[in-house]
Design a protein that fits this description.
- The chain has 3 domains: about 90 residues; about 80 residues, Beta Barrel (Elongation Factor Tu (Ef-tu), domain 3), CATH 2.40.30; about 60 residues, conserved putative lor/sdh protein from methanococcus maripaludis s2 fold (Beta Barrel), CATH 2.40.420.20.
- The protein is about 30% helix and about 30% strand.
- The mean pLDDT is about 85.
Amino acid sequence: AAAEVAKTQAEEAQIGIEAAKIELDFAQKAYERIKQLVDAGAAPQSQLDEVESKLEAAKKKYQDLMKKSEAANRTIAAQQAACEVITTQISNSRIISPISGVITNRNINPGELAAPGVPLLTIADLGALKLEGTVAQEVVPFLSVGQKVKVEVDALPDKTFQGEISCLGPVAVTTGQYFPVEITIPGKNGLMAGMTARAVIPITTPKGIVIPSKAVKKENGKTYVFVVSKGKVSRRPVKLGLEGKGMVMVVEGLRSGEQVAVSNVSILRDGMAVAVVSGSS
């Protein structure tokens, strides 16, 4: 309201200024004309004094109106600045979620002051749930973002859900060389946030020979097995594939039918004599 009043006053002052300028110009010209007559002795001094008085009055009127206009403009500017501050405060009071979803937790009540860095609300996007887990480093080369997987949920044992790998972590999360994997399950499918689940990821690996994990010796970043032949062992470098449940796949370095030592591997040396015990190979 105050801004509107100031705006009206400024508009009225501007109209008055234009009229006062015309009046001032007219008084200035009248003064100059009478002064010339007085200087020529064609008009009395009293007439010059009269027009000079009118000129001074016109100047004062014009200056007063200019000051009034400037004051009104300052008031308008101050009111506009105050309005912008209020508009900003109102804008800051509106909290807009970057996603659509369901509020699962509220940390503030109406009328309370928000604290910097403290979440106001927790919102869950139930349109696409995510399953987070880890996979062994041996499996990572066989996975890719966008790969389709099956998801089994403990609470819904009779159902299988379709998902896809949405993220593969580039850094291991534990010293056991396990890498994070994120699987997105799209759509409204009856699942709820917080349910426990597991993913079944089909992978295709090179063919190889499966041996007990304890038959492998790791040394200086390389892997070896000790092949048993004619009562002696021969250390042979091998390339491993997938590993799990006490077994590991050898994809290079070992032929079908060859025997490997599975006990005391840590103390074996190339060419050492050994005795084959029934049941071990």
